[in-house]
Records
---
Amino acid sequence: MVSPQSNNRVIVYGYPASPFYQKITFLLDHYGVEWTLVDVPPVMPRPQLSQLLGITYRRIPVVFVDGQAYIDTTAASLALETAFGPTSKRPLLQHFPALQMQLAVNWAESSIFRLGAGHLYNAPLNEAFVKDRKSFMPGSSFDSESMKARVPFVRSQLTANLEAIESHLKEGGKKFLFGDEVQYLDLSLFTPLNWVQTQLRTGKDLLPAPKKGGGDDWSKFPFPRTLEWLAAVRAYLAGKKVKPVKLKPEEAALVILQQSSENAEKEGQLHVKKDDPLVKAGWISGEKGQKVSVTPVDTGRVPQEGKLVGLDSKSVTIKIEAQGGKALLATFPRLNFDIRAKDGAKL
Ligand SMILES: N[C@@H](CCC(=O)N[C@@H](CS)C(=O)NCC(=O)O)C(=O)O
């Protein structure tokens, strides 16, 4: 039996090229938290999650905090802020927390992220990856020529979005978006823009690649304050890098299931409100223990089944059956997830 070590409080399943995985590593660097990494492949299947832990949800990353799964980086970020914001004395949701969360989900991680993906046309995408992602985002094209043909549209939209950041930075006159301290929206917006600037390197004059070692003169580019701010976030994170400890999937699953067996108390504290719109509409009964599916409404629409344990206006928590008759709790954001009863849904 592998006994949990201090660095196993946070276990992240991901692969380095994933921007959403990178976002979580930025948060962990910011809090200065030791963490554990379980490598998963960039394409399905991922038995590390599905077979060992019963997690069929297909997007990456999946983050465990103290044996509980947090699915989608919104849920994971809230869990990390609750666990480490106060203790690290570096809270990320100090200013306008609700607005920061909404802007992260509905701006940085939707339209800006998609514009980032519009810069993938030079990336070495192999056949297996393209086939996998077509099922992930039906209707999307990863053909380099059609992606290139769309670049003027992508750059036109990017201009409008960068303009918003530029004018906000001009009004604020500070190093970061909300002042002299990094906040959640800094990291959330930085993630897709930094992906284009430093990894895809197809941002041209809008998001030019920085020189090694810094010292760039951004004044000749259309959005100099934005480039300055991106460089400041990059430099901030570079000084805080935490190297994860790697664990094999089998060992990680043992640790997680051991930790989750100590989570019974948490389960008892969660509730489903009888006046929840889904209960009132008869889509779910409102009873804890009902079998439900939770499915993203945007990309990677693979349902996750489990027994309903808690539902409030922010999140839904289900109990998932894992290997060897064990179980674990998984929390999803409510926003952009569809929750349905598996038995007797009124549809
Ligand atoms: N809203 C999700 C988005 C996650 C996402 O789209 N992740 C990408 C990787 S960057 C993904 O899972 N792609 C398909 C895959 O890895 O199977 C989150 O915040 O976690």
---
Amino acid sequence: MRKSPAVRSENVVTRQHSAFKRLIGWTALLLGGWLIMAPSAVAQSLESLKDDSPWLSAEGPFPSSFDFRPSGSALPGEPAKFSTGSLTVYFVDVGQGDAQYIELPGGRNALIDGGPPNGKLAEFLARRGVTKIDHLVMTHPHLDHFGGLPSVFDSLQVGNFYDTMMDNAGTADDLVRAKAAAEPGIAISYPRPGDSLDWGQDVKVKVFSSCPDKQSAERARDVNACSIVLKLTHANASILFTGDAGESVEGRLVAEYGDELSADVLKVGHHGSATSSTSALLEKVRPRLAYIEVGAGNSYGHPRQTTLDRLLAAGAEIHRTDLEGTFTLTDHRPAPYTETGASAEKVAVGAGETAR
Ligand SMILES: [Zn+2]
Ligand SMILES: [Zn+2]
């Protein structure tokens, strides 16, 4: 359920008065009086305080790199493009398929998968005024993950493309790879398990699984098993992105990495299918939030009730794009995506963009 922003603000002011004082104190302390928060920014910060977020109570002291900097705000002299120091992940509602758009600290961005070829991702990116993707990951060559990528290459500038060495013959994955190869100035890589990806100094990205070498014919049958699995860590909180990895991969990950798989947020594997999100994996990941990207009424029966039960038993709060639409995670707090916010920000984004 969405609450009216006006009602939320009123409640916040009364109930969060002391929190407001602390906020001012922290802001001054952290930024040495350098940043003077605009009234609207303060209001947004207050609103963010109201959310009874598991992150606040469980994480202890706030990581200083993203304290209460509202998404879309900017430091003096900087274009109001992305929230500097913040991390926002959008689990984009692309119907039956996966696409996660990430605003990284410092204004760079990343995109993991492009959803099916239905134009939904392109529309989302256009509404946000996105003109370039710094880091593009194609987890594996299935249409519900790469179908939207040709249009990304056609309309946006892509800096880095991370691919897995799996040819899904007979699909349009060749087209995506041809477009990647033709992109001016692009760096194409096939990350290996254990690799770290350089997505900026404020985040850590570790690859847990992929197919960095050409697959044999037998292995080629399981395209999902070649999914690039990676963990993004920012300010002591982490998100595990699993593509469509299934139980065979999960078993290997648990054996190889164990507790290193621990993550606050899980992008649930394979749209919540029964053969992903095994109890063994969930015991190691122990996610507090689980995001399932899935199309309403899809023919695969995703997500499976057994999977939902396992996630709930693991203590995860579940969010699904088929029920809630695009869902976001801003500075580690879950929130529904509002078009109002996007439109308002788009104006500022557009103004900042023209200078680049
Ligand atoms: Zn797949
Ligand atoms: Zn899929």
